[in-house]
Write a structure and sequence with these properties.
Shape: elongated
Largest sheet: none
Radius of gyration: 42 Å
Strand content: under 5%
Structural class: mainly alpha
Helix content: 55-70%
Distance between the termini: 20 Å
Number of helices: 10
């Protein structure tokens, strides 16, 4: 008798499944969990590194890829900074051409220069000194530097004497080691025959020359600043896209996990409720 009751109870449990049309229950929920939205998205979503890399190359593109409208701000800022950079760089080039032209056609013209351009430090000397002074005051084979310290070459010879002569006012013999070392120093720093200049009777042109140098320097400095801001815009946009990608990924994971728990808990309650009702 007791065995027949147990068999009847087992048959009752087997027949107490969810009602027809019911979609919940542990077995079905577990199967649905294997094909969850998170699993499907993990196969089809873009790589996490793509938006940051895109923003690093073109600021704002990664944000727009992620559906963030602030990506347009990075793009507009990039266009503005590029415009400013090219404008300042062009201004610096124009002013550079201007001061080089003044040096060639005004200051250097009396010496019929064979070379048109040289290092920027040379032009700075043209702004500081009214004339270069001769390189050699002796027409013979010996090198005799100028003594006028108001000229650039004369100032370099004075510096050589102070550096190598025991007494700058009493030079040693020309064949002494001190004198030869002073001449070597002078040769390495003085302006040679092909780059001599003078601004005498051309004070206005020298003022324009100095102004052009200052404006060219300022324009190129501003252009360099724009380059720094451009780099910062690229890096900031890439970091922003990286953080946004990580946050979106975490949010999707939380939403999927939450839906899984709700489905599992709901299915368990329905299964137990069905069991109790049928029992």
């Amino acid at each position: 008798m007791r065995r027949s009751k147990l068999i009847a109870l087992a048959l009752l449990l087997c027949s107490s499944g969810p009602a027809r049309g019911q979609t919940t229950g542990f077995p079905r929920d577990l199967a649905r969990r294997e094909t969850s939205p998170w699993t499907a998205q993990s196969d089809t979503r873009r790589p996490d590194w793509l938006p940051p890399l895109s923003s690093l190359i073109i600021p704002g593109s990664g944000q727009l890829m992620l559906g963030q409208e602030r990506g347009a701000i990075y793009l507009v800022l990039e266009a503005f900074l590029l415009t400013q950079f090219f404008a300042f760089h062009s201004e610096g080039g124009r002013e550079g051409d201007r001061y080089r032209e003044l040096a060639l056609t005004i200051a250097r013209a009396p010496f019929e220069p064979m070379l048109a351009d040289t290092a920027f430090e040379y032009y700075e000397r043209l702004a500081d000194f009214i004339e270069s002074g001769p390189f050699d005051t002796d027409p013979g084979p010996d090198l005799v530097p100028p003594e006028d310290e108001r000229t650039f070459n004369g100032s370099q010879w004075a510096l050589a004497r102070r550096t190598f002569f025991p007494d700058p006012d009493n030079p040693p013999p020309t064949d002494s080691e001190e004198h030869q070392r002073a001449l070597d120093f002078y040769r390495s720093r003085a302006v040679g025959p092909n780059f001599l200049w003078t601004w005498r009777n051309a004070g206005l042109e020298q003022d324009l020359f100095r102004q052009s140098i200052r404006q060219s320097d300022a324009a190129f400095r501003r252009a360099t600043t724009q380059l720094g801001l451009l780099l910062a815009n690229h890096l900031l946009s890439a970091v922003d896209a990286f953080i946004t990608t990580r946050l979106n990924r975490g949010q999707r994971r939380v939403e999927v996990d939450s839906s899984m728990r709700q489905a599992a808990v709901g299915g368990g309650v329905d299964w137990v409720a069905g069991l109790r009702v049928n029992f």
